[in-house]
From TrEMBL:
Homodimer. Substrate binds at R97, R107, R135, D221. This is 3-isopropylmalate dehydrogenase. Its cofactor is Mg(2+); Mn(2+). Mg(2+) binds at D221, D245, D249. SUPFAM superfamilies: Isocitrate/Isopropylmalate dehydrogenase-like (SSF53659). The record marks Y142, K189 as: Important for catalysis. The keyword Protein transport does not apply. One of its GO terms (biological process) is L-leucine biosynthetic process. Pathway: Amino-acid biosynthesis; L-leucine biosynthesis; L-leucine from 3-methyl-2-oxobutanoate: step 3/4.
């Protein structure tokens, strides 16, 4: 199959981890006879440096023409340390999500048996964890009207949702639950926020069309606690933009490293695949960043192309790397393996048709 993939490596460790994901996609392409064409485009701080714009029009055009987008990471300390900066790298990603209408961000959270001892949480609490966060991605407080008063002594970010915005992600989350363990947990703050009460009403109404799915509700403060106390209770967790951002970082502690969590952002047309981690500027160029989140994002991309076997083979290769301890130092301190060695191992294993027989 011929597919066009837009590569947006972005900032910090983004280019290094995307490079490893591409290695793996190439290995899959040659094994399964696909033709992946990549078109690279700048986004984030690097795009600001080159053009003054974190999401140049030419980058958007590349994304619009692609079958899928593989994204690295975004952010640079020179902007984080300057609260007055008018143009920020993050605006590139946020605008991209909005422009491409990528309203649903899917973030799987798993306890990998091979890594169960890596998590700072106790084994018996996290064993069997397998849930997926459905995070609304183009609304809420991230996109509501913002202002800073002239004297810079007050500021506001509006959290606005419409029932339609809730319904479109709601359907996807219910459908996911139907295919999984048939449980959907809506996380909100309905005891305080009007927008959360709208979420509850809308999702409850929608739930009538999915009678096989058990729907329950949790306040976000309680959810934050439950995710570390008893994470295996969750199947599909549906939530608004900012709660989903926070809870998914928390969920990564279960897996053992934020360098393991992948995500897919989907809407009505194209889709974007990115690790949930940031640009980790301290690690840039040092060959120490964990490429697995990016590689697992590439596996989600293969699923999106309906290349189910290909995605499975890539995930098996990742799990083989974890089993054999071919991991970066975030997972095993003093590990001799760097970003590119881990990527090579996974790509070699995924590309070798005799390797899977040895599993
Ligand atoms: C993420 C990131 C982004 C977000 C930032 C970089 C804007 O943290 O994808 O989780 O908050 O959505
Ligand atoms: Mn985040």
């Amino acid at each position: 199959m011929k597919k066009k993939i837009a590569l947006l490596p972005g900032d910090g460790i983004g280019p290094e981890v995307v490079n490893e994901a591409v290695k793996c996609l190439d290995a899959i392409a040659s094994r399964f006879g696909h033709d992946f064409e990549y078109i690279e485009a700048p986004v984030g701080a690097i795009a600001i440096d080159q053009t003054g714009n974190p999401l140049p029009e030419s980058t958007l055009e590349v994304c619009r023409e692609a079958d899928a987008i593989l994204f690295g990471s975004i952010g640079d300390p020179k902007y984080d340390d300057d609260p007055t900066a008018k143009v920020r790298p993050e605006q590139g990603l946020l605008r991209l999500r909005k422009e491409m209408q990528l309203y649903t961000n899917i973030r799987p959270v798993e306890a990998y048996p091979e890594l169960i001892d890596q998590s700072p949480l106790k084994n018996d609490r996290i064993a069997g964890t397998d849930f997926v966060i459905y995070r609304e991605l183009t609304g809420g407080i991230y996109f509501g009207e913002k202002w800073l008063s002239e004297d810079q002594e007050s500021a506001s970010d509006l959290c606005l949702y419409t029932a339609d915005e809730i319904r479109r992600i709601g359907h996807l989350a219910f459908q996911a639950a139907e295919k999984r363990r048939k449980k959907l947990t809506l996380v909100d703050k309905a005891n305080v926020l009007e927008s959360s009460r709208l979420w509850r009403r809308t999702i409850t109404e929608l739930g009538k069309a999915y009678p096989d799915v058990q729907l329950d509700f949790l306040f976000v403060d309680n959810a934050a606690m439950q995710i570390v106390l008893n994470p295996s209770q969750f199947d599909v967790v549906l939530t608004e933009n900012m709660f989903g951002d926070i809870l998914s970082d928390e969920g990564s502690v279960i897996a053992g490293s934020i360098g393991l969590l992948a995500s897919a952002s989907v809407g009505d047309s194209t889709a974007l695949f990115e690790p949930i981690h940031g640009s980790f500027p301290q690690a840039k160029g040092l060959n120490i960043a964990n490429p697995v989140a990016s590689i697992l994002s590439a596996a989600m991309l293969l699923d999106h192309f309906n290349m189910t076997e290909e995605a499975l083979v890539l995930r098996q290769a990742v799990s083989q790397s974890l089993k054999q301890g071919v991991v970066t130092s975030d997972l095993k301190s003093g590990s001799p393996f760097g970003t590119s060695e881990v990527g090579d191992f996974i790509a070699d294993f995924a590309g070798d048709d005799s390797a899977s027989d040895k599993l």
